[in-house]
Design goal:
Structural class: alpha/beta
Shape: globular
CATH class: Alpha Beta
Helix content: 40-55%
Radius of gyration: 18 Å
Distance between the termini: 39 Å
CATH superfamily: NAD(P)-binding Rossmann-like Domain
Oligomer: single chain
CATH topology: Rossmann fold
Order of helices and strands: EHEHEHEHEHEHHE
CATH architecture: 3-Layer(aba) Sandwich
Length: 259
């Protein structure tokens, strides 16, 4: 292995599959990986511009980027995405299981039915399981791979003032899934997760001005993150700089969880 610290972070010659990659954190990760040299399988849910986004990124970064419609709550669609990505690229070195949704139903007893709870679990828990299952098949056959989950500080704390027990529970499951798989797959793959704090993406648009001000008062750095401020953690976990890192949870939250 090279001792050049910069070459350790290069993804040249690698292929990464990123779910939820047409916007927000997922896109920032896909963009960073592409500029680091990786070809990208860009998974998206319903974005009408995903194919153009992939084409623009490919042109800008000088790598191959292919968009795949991948609703992660559909196991058949996830399996099809992996199969198509393997057919296109021949291998998958890195998988970022990033797709997720937030909870807007308020207190757990408030929603009139169970639909929103089920949707959260279908996407945030089952979706990560489906992605992990397909990634594990590929990595075991190859004998190597890096799986990175996007979890959240909500796995570690109880968010206020919003009431979002369902989301927090789902993310706690993701973090523990990463730890379990890190042990179970240690002979052929590394598994880690990144836990962002409050970040300026579509997923936080449910919050009004007063709620966001309360968040900022609780964040030592006094603001939300930009998606680009998270990508260093993902690049580290995807690259040869982290070949002895597995079962880790990298928290990027402006200091929120240390006070």
């Amino acid at each position: 292995m090279s001792t050049d610290p910069f070459s350790l972070f290069s993804l040249k010659g690698k292929t990464a599959l990123v779910t939820g990659a047409s916007t927000g954190i997922g896109y920032a990760v896909a963009q960073t990986f592409a500029y680091a040299g990786a070809d990208i399988a860009l998974g998206y849910y319903s974005s009408p511009t995903a194919i153009q986004i992939a084409a623009d990124l490919a042109k800008a970064a000088g790598v191959t980027v292919e968009a795949f419609k991948c609703p992660v709550d559909d196991p058949d669609a996830v399996a099809s995405t992996f199969s198509s990505a393997l057919e296109k690229f021949g291998k998958i070195d890195i998988v970022v299981s990033n797709a997720g949704i937030t909870w807007t139903g308020g207190e757990l007893i408030a929603p009139p039915d169970h639909k929103e709870w089920k949707q959260i679990m279908d996407v945030n828990i089952d979706g990560n399981y489906y992605v992990a299952k397909e990634a594990g098949k590929v990595f075991k056959a190859q004998g190597y791979g890096s799986l990175i989950f996007t979890s959240s500080i909500s796995a570690l704390i109880v968010n206020v003032p919003q009431r979002q027990a369902a989301y927090n529970v789902s993310k706690a499951a993701v973090t523990h899934l990463a730890r379990c798989l890190a042990v179970e797959w240690a002979s052929f793959a590394r598994v880690n997760c990144v836990s962002p704090g409050y970040t300026l993406t579509e997923i936080t648009k449910f919050a009004d001005h007063d709620m966001k001000e309360e968040w900022r008062q609780r964040i030592p750095m006094g603001r939300e993150a930009l998606p680009v401020e998270l990508v260093g953690a993902y690049l580290y976990l995807a690259s040869n700089a982290s070949t002895y890192t597995t079962g880790s949870d990298i928290v990027v939250d402006g200091g929120y969880t240390v006070i």
